[in-house]
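Researcher: I'm preparing a figure for a lab meeting and need a structural model of a single chain. I don't have an experimental structure, so a prediction will have to do for now. The sequence is pasted below. Please return the structure as tokens so I can convert it later.
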Amino acid sequence: MVQRRLILATLWALVTFLAACSPAMAQGLILKLPIDGTWSRFRVTSQEDISFLRDPKEFPDTWQTMLATIPDFAHTEMELVISSVASEEIDGEQYRWIELLWKKGSVAEEEKETTEDEGTLLRLQVAEKVLSNGGDPLDNARVVIVRGGFSKEDDGEIKNEERKKYELQCFRQFFPKYSLNEKDRDHVRSVEDLTNQPRQVERAHRFRFNYQGKMHGGEHGSLIHHANYTVISDPTAPFGVKQIWVTDGVTIEDSGPYDPTNEFCDGPGIVARGNSQIVLLESGTNAVARWKANAEQ
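Model: Understood. Here is the structure written out token by token.
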């Protein structure tokens, strides 16, 4: 379990958004809505120093072998595929089904489905008007379906609001939120630079990103994350973004001191400090839905 949480921590995923930030804005990997069937594949890499909040020697001998495998420095590579896989009208409003597939290693677009070992699949039904205006797909999802989720519960549509919040926020690193009312406002600025292509403008949006939440499905322990984000938008990218830089990042996860009577107090606490980047690799227009209803699996 610690090793799985370590992977999440090193990729800025162990957090729940602090709702007190208002008005909040989102700046992530979907700034515009392409035609249905479009997909984009991103590589997510991170380089971080890893340390513990408590001395691992305080934990049972059965932990020592496993804890010894956690490196002081971690270089991790994962990939994320964003796909628009269906469009439908509901009560006169047009919606898109957006799938986010996140896994360690390389994602082949030809794969039609995923399992827990192959990655986590998040399927969202979001109004097209939200996506077309660069709105936040996580907060505005009408339906949320997960496969191989982080909370280790059954696959399918999520009805429980606490679990839904937790699964969505594990993807928040790709759709960071910030508040213009907080002190971070000084970090929010835009810079335009002409590229080598005629009439093409890239925009670099820089801001400070802070998270605070809980672990274990959003119910126990604590999670803290903060970092500097730079989002590089590009009008030629299908979803509008070609790169995100994350610098000076710190992620802290803590389940509390070891307590054999409490299943949630099961770790020395992990601190990950470092940088990461999310880079667009390739795109296409032949996306196929990876999720299938249980009756079809």
